[in-house]
Amino acid sequence: MLERKGARVAFVTTAGFEDTIAIGRQARSELYNLSSPGPVCLVPEELRFGVTERVTADGDLLREPSEIELDTLARRIAEGTAESIAISTLFSFLRPENELHVETALKRLALPISTSHRILPEFREYERGSTVVVNAYLVPIMQKYLLSLKRQIEADYRCSSVHVMQSSGGIISAETAATEPVRTILSGPAGGVVGVSKVAAAAGISRIIGLDMGGTSTDVFLLDASHSSPLLRSESHISGVPVSVPMLDIHTIGAGGGSLARFDQGGLLRVGPESAGSDPGPICFGRGTQVTVTDANLILGRLEDQCFLGGSSELLIEPTRSAFSKLTGSLSSVEEFAAGILRVVESNMERAIRYVSVERGHHPRDFVLLAFGGGGPVHACALARSLQIPKVLIPAAPGALSAMGILFADETRERSRTVMLAGEVLEDLESHFLALEGEAREEFHEKSNLMVERSVDLRYKGQGYELNVPYGPHSAESFHLQHEKQFGFADRNRSLEIVNVRLRLMLPSESFSFAELPLESPDGSQALIGTKQIYFDGSWVTAATYNRDLLRPGNMIQGPALIGEYTSTTVVPPGCSLEVDSRGNLLISVSDVPMGSNS
Predict the structure, then answer these.
(1) Is the peptide bond before 280 cis (omega within 30 degrees of 0)?
(2) pLDDT for 505-556, tens place per residue?
(3) In what order do the strands lie in the sheet with 539-547?
(4) CA distances from 34 to 29, 102, 373 (A)
(5) How many CB atoms are closer than 10 A to CB 429?
């Protein structure tokens, strides 16, 4: 999806609406930019086709496509270069008959077919069409790969089933993922959210800001125990394309360990979003030629290389320092250049955290910052100090937390349907939920102990956008409170409108508990490796370095210090203190920060 290496998609819709997939909506991300590009369209003009059919907004079937027209459509697609087909006709979520006619006629082409009434039976034709196109764009390569992987795993390991992570934080069967790959686009970050929620619950922490910094990007999200599960959103933009399937509420920016640093034409220091990637990678790994965030951390002494990758990979300081000395620009020293890179990338991550917290009515000081990924523990304390977050938690094996989260994930199915009903019938939606539940249960093959979550999308009558709230006797009041929190006002005298009903069916994963070890003495000298010079606030200071594998619950360490391990390095600045809890997590108290409600 990111590299635009998907299939060539033929888009079939109601005649006269073929170009909606390219026109998009009137909304502009840059309102005063007259040269702002239009929306990204994955379907070339020659592969957009219209069918003479019509279903009204009330669900009445006015016109069906003729067999002659469908034969002609099949021939035109066959003569083209399409590798996959996306079908999205007007109001098919109310009456899918016409879409089914088109699908039946095109099956003879032996191409994968994605239909909107199965993928996304909701209103807003542009977003629905775009989502179905993305699914069709991914199906050929994902289907081939996943089904081949499933056969190989079942044969080699005699495994009865293979599952794939969804963007919504639950797993689905490989067969379902092969036909609906649009549900798996953010599967990696979603695994991180699940892993964080399990670690936080085991540590008794109710409010978490998650920070996952990898090689090319940083994902941030907010978890609050007042919600029964991580927050979901139904509308996202992935690589510039609208995708309207349930996804965990994750905000991603182009800031990672491999983010490239440069001076722009005005002499300002920029970091990212371009990345060195894994090939050639940072300079300190031996093949890179452009300076990165990881290189800056090495220059400032913030990487512990004796434990990194088990000590099997040497970090090259001299070539890195030489490259930095040639690019300092107007800065006076290599250290000032490297420190500037970290200030820039950390300010980008700080803005991302403010986006998911302050801009949504939450003060960061009321949360614990849980940092993971290869780069998260390196920058966590600096971010916490800037945002007045009093506590930082670094889980065990932070570089593998996303993978661990996938193992913890429940098997889930999400179903939705546009209903467009007056708010007065809010308590009379049982028939709609039962229909969605029946569809979802078919995929679980009569498994028991299933859990059901129901929610509704509500809005004030006349509004263009809606908010999702749990379904129940207090749905209306929950909407008013959420509206007031997000937009600053609520009008309880105004009529409500029910837009969509949503259902989430879950098969809980096997129970798991983190091993809890007895606390030992505060002395962590058994893990001490030595000392190292680290650059903080304009000067070099001597810091102790530790091997995390040798730390024990109850050990306490005063900053400045470095905690090295296989997948990452934890930086403990001067004035901060670290304690190892009973589950092996590193809990850091950040200096000069007032304690919040979560401490």
Answers:
(1) yes
(2) 999 888 888 888 888 888 889 999 999 999 998 899 999 999 999 999 999 9
(3) 528-536, 539-547, 561-564, 569-572
(4) 11, 40, 39
(5) 17
DSSP codes joined into one string, 242-303: EE-S-EE--EEES--TTEEEEE-TTS-EEEEEEE-TTTT--GGGTS--S-BHHHHHHHTT--
pLDDT of residue 161: 83
Does residue 593 have a pLDDT over 80? no
- Per DSSP bridges, beta strands 236-238 and 241-243 are antiparallel
Q: How far apart are CA 419 and CA 439, in angstroms?
A: 17
Nearest to 433 by CA among 501, 527, 530, 506: 501
Residue the block writes with tokens 């079908």: 87
Cα 62 to chain center, whole Å? 41
The total number of residues written for the chain in this structure? 599
Q: What is the pLDDT of residue 320?
A: 92
pTM: 0.84
Per-residue confidence at 598, pLDDT binned at 50, 70, 90?
Answer: very low
Asked if residue 286 lies in contact with residue 274, where contact means CB atoms within 8 angstroms, the answer is no
Q: What is the pLDDT of residue 467?
A: 93
What is the domain partition of the chain in residue ranges? 9-140, 148-184, 192-236+346-390+397-406, 420-437+451-502
Query: How far apart are alpha carbons 244 and 233 in whole angstroms?
Result: 9
Asked whether residue 327 carries a pLDDT value surpassing 80, the answer given is yes
Say if residue 31's pLDDT is above 90.
no
**C-alpha 271: how far from chain center:** 22
CA distance 599 to 594: 10
- Domain spanning 9-140 has what CATH number? 3.40.50
Amino acid of residue 570: T
The two three-digit tokens of residue 96, written as one number? 């899918």
Both tokens assigned to 358: 């302050």
Contact between 59 and 109 (Cβ < 8 Å): no
pLDDT for residue 413:
92
Q: SS3 for 121?
A: coil
